[in-house]
Write a structure and sequence with these properties.
- By secondary structure, the chain is an alpha+beta fold.
- The chain is built from 10 helices and 25 strands.
- The protein has helices at 69-73, 77-92, 134-146, 201-209, 236-303, 309-319, 322-332, 379-384, 394-406, 425-430; strands spanning 4-7, 11-14, 38-39, 46-51, 57-61, 96-102, 109-115, 122-127, 150-155, 168-173, 179-183, 187-189, 192-194, 199-200, 214-216, 232-234, 340-342, 355-359, 365-369, 388-391, 416-419, 451-455, 458-464, 476-479, 490-492.
- Strands 6-7-8-9-10-11-14 form a 7-stranded mixed sheet. A 5-stranded antiparallel sheet has the order 2-1-3-4-5, with no helix packed on it. A 5-stranded mixed sheet has the order 17-18-19-20-21, sandwiched between helices.
- It is rod-shaped and about 150 Å long.
- The two termini are 97 Å apart.
- The relative contact order is 0.05.
Amino acid sequence: MAFRAVHAKWGTVFAHLPDLGCEQSWEAVWRVKPPAPIACAECRHPMYAKTSRSGLRFFAHAPQAPDCEIARQGESEAHHLLKLELASAARDAGAHAEMEVRASDGSWRADVLATDPGGGWTMALEAQLSPITAADITARTVRMREHGVTACWFSDRPRPPWLGTVPSIRLAADDDGGLTVVEGLARFTGSGWQVPPQASLTDFLRWVFAGKVLPHAPRTTLRYPLRQLPQVWTAPQYVIAEDTHLAEEEKRQRLQQERQRLQEERQAAYREKREKELAQKRARNAESRARAIAKAAMLEERARQPHRRAESKLHDELMERADVQGAVAFLASDAYNIPVTAGWSSSEGHWAGGVPLIRTDESVPTAVLDPEPGQLAGDAFRLLAGLLLLFSTKARKERFERNTRRRRKVPIDGWHTDFLADLPAQALASSGAKAHRHRRPEECTCLQPQLVAKISRAEYPAEPAEEMGPAAGLYTTVCRRCGRPYERPWRRVLAKGPEPDPGRQTTDIEPVAPNSPDM
């Protein structure tokens, strides 16, 4: 099916034009005898005029036609109708339009060649309905551009895969029977590309011929329902708007990066200053702790003198306690592999109410068992901050850490703590303990316990209570009847005396003010 032919006298004739393009009627070539002298514009083989069942007029090759491109490929009715629409719209837009124009060297043929009446530009309007690869359509566009002819491709198929690869537009029929641009035309608003109001094919071509729209490769996202096309048609002001938006966005990102860089520099300077201060503080604390440990070692050495009978008796009593034996075995196990014994200077106040554990080979303080948070002050704080703190139960360990945090009596690097409850029985056996198995101390179960609270190296009477008193969160109490710790709520028994002043608030214990180089 062809729509262009060459008449022997009239020249080129077009089947779609009412006057064939030469002021002649269709009846002058259709069903006439003898046949009209028309031939193919490509192979010059004779052709004759025909009409389809729908009334479409076209030219067909006579029998025994050579291997002609038109004869081989033909042209669908839909393709021809789209070419007619393109040619008609181009003329309505003010251009001169000619169909089926071939290049001088035969390298390409334009479906519709639109030219400026003033000779300023030439554009090929290509109707592409059959499948084609992006590479092929790009190569055909490049061949036309080499001859000074720009191209725009058109399709009315739902989703042509090559759309946007080259300057292109997707069309659709409107309610009036004309064609409307539905994809490939966009405008930039705010920070992205949006769908513009629909435009007719004639309006679009008028904008193209006047230079009011041009192909552009978007650098920002096309908003839904637009597809992400690599190339769209848009007005120059929208290209400028996108450039302005990208420049502002780049400036904003640079400012954000600069602010982030300055913030990181400030943070790095602060960290460096903080680390320097901490290093100086750690150095001072290391000196103070070394002095505290040296003082404790001296007192331990003094307590071991033969004439100090009281310390010797206290040491023997401590070594008979189950929790002390468990701590000795725990430190001697594979967890630490340190041989220790209970300290002879346990009565000294710098152990914060706990039991010192001394290395047997060097007589150096290594750990403290069950220290009391309420007795951490001065030398006791500095000494314990450099030692391992062992607790007979996990609950005691957590109580110590909780109360030291509340009283703000924590070293800058925290406490080094551990507890005995998780030690397996076989580890104690392998450590060399005398057939002793560490177990958690049993609690008091007496019906009428006689309680005594150990507070600041002194003992005070206490009694069971429904709720924990102020001292119960910091100190421990034991029952004199059974000698076991009392873990339930208790309170101090205040000695009877004169009536207290109503205007003065009293507490069980006077708080100990923080006094530490680590605060």
